[in-house]
Amino acid sequence: MSDKALSASETASGLLKRAGRWQIWEIALWLIAIAMIFVLPSKMLILTEITILALFAVSLDLILGYAGIVSLGHTAFFGLGAYVAGIFARDYVSEPVTGLLVAGAVSGLFGFVTSFLVLRGSDLTRLMTTFGVAMLLAELANQAAWLTGGADGLSGVMITPILGLFEFDLWGRNGYIYALVVLMVLTFIARRIVNSPYGLSLKAIKRNPVRAAMLGISPTRRIVVVYTIAAVYAGIAGALLTQTTSFVSPDVLAFHRSADVLLVLVIGGTGYLYGGIFGAIIFTVLRDWLSVITPQYWMFWIGLILIIIVMVGRERITRWQAFLPGSARAERLKARKAAEDVR
Amino acid sequence: MTAALETRNLVKRFGGFTATNDVTLSVRQGARHALIGPNGAGKTTLINLLTGVLAPNSGQILLGGEEISRLPTHARVGRGLSRTFQINQLFGDFTPLDSMMLAIGERQGHGGMAWRPLSRDRAVADEAAALLKRFRLADAMGVATTLLPYGKQRLLEIALAIAAKPKVLLLDEPAAGVPEEERHEVLSLVRELPADVTVVLIEHDMDLVFSFADRISVLAQGALFAEGTVAEISKDPQVKAIYLGEDA
């Protein structure tokens, strides 16, 4: 092999640096998202919707793609964040960034408490527990009409300009910029986390819990932490929805949202952080397009696409970005060749 | 001198079946101790009890004199107990480098660091590289584990256990499934393990046991059947009858 001359530790350090490096497609994605502000000024609302769904999916990917925890109730955190942001803006401070932080904190606290329910048990137990938690919250929101507006939703949420400077305009331009900045910041943080020793340990717990324990890893704390972070993310996503629409509908806690975000990850792929973003784009555009051409049957097509994706294998059709140069896939192909050399 | 690893009257029952029957075992510091016995003798159950995968019904396990019977697996690892698995337990698409970064990072308590990029954990990376080199995995450190030949995977399996810097290492059939031509490499690395590491070897291959171990315990039907030096065990007619006889 060519790198025989290099010392093992130089090779190691080179490999580690490469693994954490920014990929061309990542940078391109963010540049395109920014360019959208100028390219598609008439589509700000749907772009905001995509951005919020993407953040929600990134949140689920942290627990599903990295820690291997399945959830059918992830919207509990999204909905909680949405309501907290709404109530906080109505009754206390109407400045959105403050509201975002408060919503994230409350949702994170709830995530921390409920994380202990997903520590043990099979995938099925986790599916049911998370589903149950979301149902509980949905019913609470419905009953506590004095606080949440009940079935009518929470209206009259006045949001003042962001940091007192940027007003939410009618075209949704500032709303999109605001949501995009939040998504970028939180994705960068998540990216840093998954490329850390802690992130590595999460991946290890997902891949082989038996061996992970035998390396001295206690899964409990690691899972509690990532579940809490994911809850903060989902809560912030929910708060973004409230702030960009000035309204909270009981729909934010509805089951279909938990299912949708799972679908987004199935479309986009899990465990590489951008699956939620690609998935959100494809899902929203597809839904929009289908609901225009077949307003009554679009669910049918979504269902069909879901089945095809699962049957054909997500790996093959959604890891398209992996074929781009410098990507993980290209690295793996190179590695496979190297493996043959070793043999 | 305190034994490196000790069990006292260890019992494990599954329903009406006693898989571990009153096992009292003592392994001295630095020993090369082999644990043998026919299939179904309870070797795997014993290992699972020692590592905390199973909880005993009664009895005690002591590591360096400290009782560990009720500790979870990861806490036992932290106290210096490590093992390899008879069937590789690796991290599929991780590279050997990833796996080693994980193992060494965890030993140094870096596993909770969520803000430091792996590439900046230089001390861990250097140690990982050195260990990979020692285990003849340096050339393959960037290759996904599943793509490695089985012998190399076996080396990684052992290297991961060593990365935890154990005081006591349980080797569960280290050469199992390794093709003949790669076998020598695995066994020579097992022989090169530092002398201060206490090794308990669970093995079927009698040639390996006799060449490697200084003491042998024989398990049969969940109970300790005989214990002694290699010379004593290899001459014991009863051991031959229940175990060696069958094997020959």
Automatic annotation (TrEMBL), chain A:
One of its GO terms (molecular function) is branched-chain amino acid transmembrane transporter activity. The keyword Manganese does not apply. It comes from the Bacteria. It is found in: Cell membrane. It is a multi-pass membrane protein. Keywords: Cell membrane, Membrane, Transmembrane, Transmembrane helix. The chain crosses the membrane at residues 22-40, 52-85, 97-119, 140-163, 175-194, 223-241, 261-286, 298-317. It holds the Pfam family BPD_transp_2. GO terms for cellular component: plasma membrane. This is Branched-chain amino acid ABC transporter permease. It comes from Oryzicola mucosus.
UniProtKB/TrEMBL annotation, chain B:
One of its GO terms (molecular function) is ATP hydrolysis activity. InterPro entries: AAA+_ATPase, ABC_AA/LPS_Transport, ABC_transporter-like_ATP-bd, BCA_ABC_TP_C, P-loop_NTPase. It comes from the Bacteria. Signal peptide: none annotated. It holds the Pfam family ABC_tran. The keyword Lipid biosynthesis does not apply. PROSITE patterns: ABC_TRANSPORTER_2 (PS50893). This is ABC transporter ATP-binding protein.
